[in-house]
Specification:
Elements: E1 3-6, E2 21-24, E3 27-30, E4 33-34, H1 46-63, E5 71-78, H2 84-94, E6 101-106, E7 115-122
Parallel strand pairs: 5-6
Antiparallel strand pairs: 1-2, 2-3, 3-7, 4-7, 5-7
Helix pairs in contact: 1-2
């Protein structure tokens, strides 16, 4: 099955050799998105980073032809498990019921980065 890469200027561009988003058939897979803003800055708090990370994710999904209603699974990478409540609030405002499945993973991220999200979407 052929793969097609997509990108958008509405989210920060990857600095590594990865595609911002890849579509294969009806599957859309964005690269992980942090809370980095378009100007390259990073909000200092978990709320700001989480809102920006989900906004970046939705923008990148759209470049591949998907929307938040097409998302079937989300992975959230957090540096502190106490921040899951903030993620839950952002998740509820980003997605509607029935919510996508979700996995939360507690990890070490680059300096200053508190959260990263990725997803898998299936489109008709």
């Amino acid at each position: 099955m052929p793969r097609t890469a997509f990108s958008t200027e509405l989210a920060p561009q990857p600095k590594n050799p990865v595609s911002q988003c890849v579509r294969a058939g009806n599957i859309v897979a964005p690269a992980g998105q942090t809370g980095r803003l378009l100007d390259g800055t990073l909000p200092s708090d978990i709320e700001g980073q989480t809102r920006a990370a989900f906004a970046n994710l939705i923008a990148v999904l759209a470049s591949g032809g998907a929307s938040e209603s097409d998302v079937v699974h989300v992975r959230v990478y957090l540096t502190d498990q106490e921040n899951i409540g903030v993620v839950n609030k952002a998740f509820e405002t980003t997605f509607s019921q029935p919510y996508p499945a979700r996995t939360a993973i507690y990890v070490g991220l680059r300096a200053g980065v508190l959260v990263e999200v990725d997803a898998l979407a299936v489109i008709d």
